[in-house]
Design goal:
heterodimer, A: N-terminal domain of TfIIb, 3-stranded antiparallel beta sheet, 9 strands, elongated, disordered N terminus, B: alpha/beta, 6-stranded mixed beta barrel
């Protein structure tokens, strides 16, 4: 019986011990690093896609935590997905460092504001952030919305506020961003494709 | 990409030009090495630097930055003059026999219709001759001097190998070796792929460079073929998807376009985008534009979009011009903008002329940053010494910084360069209070909607009527949004052939865009993504990597737009009779028994159109065939012409030394003040080009510890000859300046950059990696775009980051 490294791992994870498998004669063809196997055996595997370049390499994220409500999952290892038809398990120096992106100390954690002329950030609540920004947008839109151009043609556009959309956010984020932005009549709208 | 990553393995020749896949797309480049190992493929690299892609090439040719049209134009001339074209392919599948109007002309670097004052062409003369039947006139004998073939031949006859050497600095023998290797793929049994990236787009002539490449591939019969195509290696992981979804100032989802203020008549708006066939028997698939558009408006505005109000046509803003980012930052710089939102984007680092961008941001009333990381843009107001020397007290912009999730903390799909929509799953909670982008958009929108509902305001109708059917209104979920862009039936859909049968019940998800209607009975947020999430489930999450034909098409893996098709224009992989050009590369073929097209890929064609019907393979074009002659679709002219970068090290266009107006792109837009900020070779003698390192990704990975460790500090790369001339040793600190500012960095002196002889003059290149800034865990550095010029491509307005002038001195 041929048991691949991954197949062997799955069998182990399902509850049988490695030694009993070996005892039954089902030794995997490649040698296993036992310590690594046991470490990953306690993790949850999640399929994802590398967020950097457009090759779209498949990755597997390993997180601690069993999905229970009172447990916060934490990703502790990321590697290439060997089943992926493009990268076939490989990652480049960027993708190989993804774990440090997820846990970068420069990740933002709370809404903040820097007031005009100030030298520092001030932490605010989401509600305050949303309400203040929405009010600023509405004030500007109401004051500068162009319903008709100089020739009296209906143009319904808002030019004094702009929006720069992302380049690595999901299609679902992009779709709803476009939907909201156009409903406001905004034209100063672009994404990274232009640069 | 017309093709996709794994398909590269099917190539016989691979040209990498305007890109460096080995370093910028390493896991995709694997398929180049696969083609070399398994298919005896030859790799050709043309680049100013001897990159790591070049290190694995069978043939490397140096080229001066910004002269790719001259090189590729020289190739066109070589192929035509030497008869190295796939004649059966181009006769049937291109416009070579079409006749062009007599008004069209080209003289002294200008095409007909130029207005020097406006820097713009009247393009009405750049059209085909029409016959009395309304169709384009053709001359299949190719004798008529006005046929596209003869005009093209004459245009490129000027691009001799000697001229290529004079402009590009590529030694003539090297150029001829490259030309010979590429030309070997003009036979039906050999195919070449072209891989390019920002090295082609980031020029004032970028779009025309890519068009020239497409012309080369058409001449060789390599479009629509496995192992062929013109393949853009996109930069970011979902820049393809966000472009497909139309997040650009002039677009709507699925490459539909916003109306201009001169086309406020709805019928006219649709008619202009749904062209009738220009030749008999052609499909002209954009004739379905109305179905895609009405379904979009139903998706966005639901019951408020009715036939009576032209499907809420007034809700769409009307353009007076394109508001690309250069235009927007120009307006901001003039003080004409008040607010700006940057979602996952770092414009202070990413846009040209950092001093201008910083000054523009300082004039805003409010700036909103939505990002997982602390970007430079979010702190443009903070003093970081020499890296960002500003006075916070003088900057009156309120800045909000909202933390967002990253890839690992959300479900969703992104589109790779090969147009595959791949679903991913959440593996952990985000840090702190970070929220997903849809949640943040909902938070802002719902508050705005409440304010308009309560207090009224300017034209509230589209805001109040925007559909918002999400289970939890403040947290739209990815599955709901994916189903919305896939589309659904709003009323029972009956079978066209048997109206007693219901194909789709009201509320059911659609199978694909062929089911869309323009009567308001279907909704679809992005027609080209239709089929991604159907009643059968999430097609983007499919994980069957079986490859039964061994050609890398893996139709069961994820979902490729359109219609799960892996190679665009694949009808052209078969001859006019429907038989594959090459039996080894069977993609699609006519199955006479079934009366249908069959294949190892989803045919890009009308499934039941028999070969004898004579429908062309380029079904999106009203001509039915591919265009060598771009008609009025490009701003600089129907045939690409070489123009110098706006900052040229030789100060003259060797093609048109007598016409100073044709030195650089005559149709590129240049704002007042920016022209004056261009540098001259007398002060800034070296040709600079920005580039990326394999260890870093743009401005993100300087926040990533492992990447900061392996590539910690900013440097610039200069050749040994220039270093010797300037007395610079490897490891010295140098100051690199342009007419817009300076950066200081460590000098890396290499053999990878050699001086070139151009127009009788020695030109040195300076290579400038762009990954540094004043935020991150790597050593702080200067923003590279301090140096770059504020001018874009004549069509897309993509900035000219790849060709500008600098001086280098010891710091």
């Amino acid at each position: 019986m041929q048991v691949s490294r991954r197949g062997f791992f799955k069998v182990c994870a399902a509850g049988m011990s490695g030694s009993s498998l070996v005892a039954m004669g089902f030794a995997p063809t490649a040698a296993l690093a036992e310590v690594r196997t046991f470490k990953l055996a306690r993790t949850t595997e999640t399929r994802n896609t590398c967020p950097y370049c457009s090759v779209g390499c498949g990755i597997i994220m390993y997180s601690l935590g069993d999905g229970a409500k009172n447990v916060h999952a934490s990703i502790m290892h990321i590697e290439g997905d060997p089943d992926h038809p493009v990268n076939r398990g490989t990652l480049c120096p960027k993708g190989a460092g993804l774990l440090d992106f997820v846990h970068s100390k420069n990740r933002l954690k709370h809404p903040e504001v820097r007031e005009p002329g100030s030298k520092e950030w001030k932490r605010i609540t989401w509600d305050e952030a949303f309400t203040r920004i929405a009010r600023l947008m509405k004030e500007d839109r109401d004051a500068n919305f162009v319903a008709q151009n100089a020739d009296g043609v209906t143009v319904n556009r808002w030019l004094t506020t702009g929006f720069l959309a992302a380049s690595a956010s999901s299609n679902e984020s992009g779709y709803i961003t476009h939907k909201v932005v156009r409903s406001l009549g905004m034209l100063a709208f672009d994404n990274q494709a232009r640069v | 990409m017309t093709n996709h990553w794994s398909d590269i393995k099917n190539a016989d020749v691979i040209l990498i030009m305007g890109g460096n896949a080995a370093e910028a797309h390493p896991c995709g480049f694997k398929w180049v090495t696969e083609a070399k190992a398994k298919n005896k493929a030859r790799l050709v690299v043309v680049d100013p630097r001897f990159t790591r892609s070049a290190a694995l090439a069978d043939l490397y040719a140096p080229i001066r930055t910004g002269t790719d049209i001259a090189f590729l134009g020289g190739l066109i001339n070589y192929l035509i003059a030497g008869g190295k074209v796939h004649m059966d392919y181009i006769k049937s599948y291109t416009d070579m026999s079409f006749l062009v109007k007599d008004e069209y002309a080209f003289k002294d670097g200008f095409f007909s219709g130029y207005d020097a004052e406006k820097r713009r062409y009247d393009k009405s003369g750049w059209e085909y001759q029409l016959g009395e039947d309304g169709y384009v006139k053709t001359d299949p004998t190719l004798q008529d001097p006005r046929c596209v073939w003869n005009l093209m031949k004459a245009h490129y006859s000027r691009y001799t190998p000697e001229m290529v050497e004079k402009i590009c600095g590529t030694p003539k023998e090297k150029f001829l070796q490259v030309a010979e290797m590429l030309a070997s793929t003009h036979t039906p049994d050999r195919v070449m792929t072209i891989l390019y990236a920002l090295g082609w787009t980031q020029h004032s002539t970028g779009s025309q460079i890519i068009r020239t490449a497409a012309m080369v591939q058409l001449l060789l019969g390599n479009i629509g073929r496995a192992g062929g195509g013109v393949n853009a290696l996109r930069g970011h992981s979902n820049i393809q998807g966000l472009t497909d979804l139309g997040l650009l100032s002039n677009l709507l989802p699925g490459y539909m376009t916003l109306p201009g203020e001169k086309e406020t008549d709805y019928e006219q708006y649709i008619a202009r985008r749904a062209p009738k066939p220009m030749r008999p028997g052609q499909l002209s698939y954009w004739q379905n534009y109305g179905k895609f558009h009405v379904s979009l408006m139903k998706s966005w505005f639901g019951g408020a979009a009715t036939k009576e109000n032209n499907w809420a046509f007034d809700y769409l803003p009307k353009l007076d011009k394109t508001y690309d980012v250069l235009q927007v930052f120009e307006l901001m710089h003039q003080g004409k903008m008040n607010g700006y939102v940057a979602q996952g984007f770092n414009p202070l680092n990413s846009f040209p002329n950092k001093a201008k961008v910083g000054a523009a941001l300082s004039k805003l009333k409010f700036l909103v940053i939505i990002d997982p990381l602390a970007t430079e843009t979010s702190e443009f107001w903070q003093n970081y010494g020499e890296f960002n020397d500003v006075d916070p007290a003088g900057i009156q912009t309120a800045v909000f910084r909202l933390p967002s999730t990253c890839f690992a903390e959300e479900d969703g799909s992104i589109v790779n360069s090969g147009r595959w929509l791949q679903w991913h799953w959440k593996g952990a909670e985000p840090p702190g209070e970070a929220k997903s982008d849809p949640e943040i958009m909902a938070g802002l929108f719902l508050r705005l909607r409440d304010m308009y509902r309560k207090d009224g305001g300017a034209f509230p109708d589209p805001i109040l009527n925007l559909t918002w059917p999400y289970r939890v209104p403040h947290e739209p979920m990815p599955d709901e949004l994916a189903k919305e862009y896939n589309g659904k039936a709003l009323a029972d859909q009956l079978d066209a052939k048997d109206p007693t049968k219901v194909v789709k019940k009201a509320g059911e998800l659609l199978d694909g865009f062929a089911q869309l209607k323009d009567d308001g009975s279907t909704a679809c947020g992005c027609w080209i993504f239709s089929g991604a999430w159907t009643e059968k489930g999430n097609m983007m999450a499919r994980r069957d990597n079986a490859d039964p034909y061994q050609n890398g098409q893996t139709l069961g893996w994820a979902f490729a737009w359109p219609a799960n098709r892996r190679i665009l224009y694949n009808r052209a992989s078969a001859d006019p009779a429907g038989k594959p050009w090459d039996a080894k590369r069977k993609q699609v073929w006519w199955d006479a028994g079934q009366g249908r097209w069959a294949g190892s890929d989803v045919p890009d064609y009308k499934a039941d159109s028999a070969p004898e019907d004579g429908m062309g393979p380029f079904i999106m074009n009203p001509e039915g065939v591919a265009r060598f002659f771009a008609r009025g679709m490009m701003n600089e002219g129907p045939f690409p012409e070489h123009y110098e970068p706006f900052e040229t090290p030789i100060g003259v266009n060797p093609m048109h030394p007598e016409n100073a107006g044709a030195t650089s792109n005559p149709a590129a837009r240049v704002f007042k003040g920016d022209m004056e900020a261009f540098g001259k070779a007398s002060e800034f003698p070296y040709a600079a080009t920005t580039y990326r390192l394999t260890e870093h990704f743009h401005y993100w990975t300087k926040h990533v510890e492992s990447n900061a460790i392996i590539q910690p500090e900013q440097f610039v790369e200069i050749g040994e000859a220039l270093a010797a001339e300037k007395g610079i040793k490897a490891g010295d600190r140098v100051k690199v300046s342009s007419n817009r500012g300076y950066i200081k960095a460590v000098a890396v002196v290499t053999k990878r950059i050699q001086p070139l002889t151009v127009n009788g003059k020695t030109v040195h290149h300076v290579g400038i990696p762009l990954h540094w800034g004043f935020k991150g865990v790597a050593k702080n550095g200067f923003i590279t775009n301090t140096l770059t010029p504020f001018v874009g491509d004549g069509n897309t307005q993509t900035p000219e980051f790849k060709s500008f002038l600098v001086n280098v001195e010891k710091a």
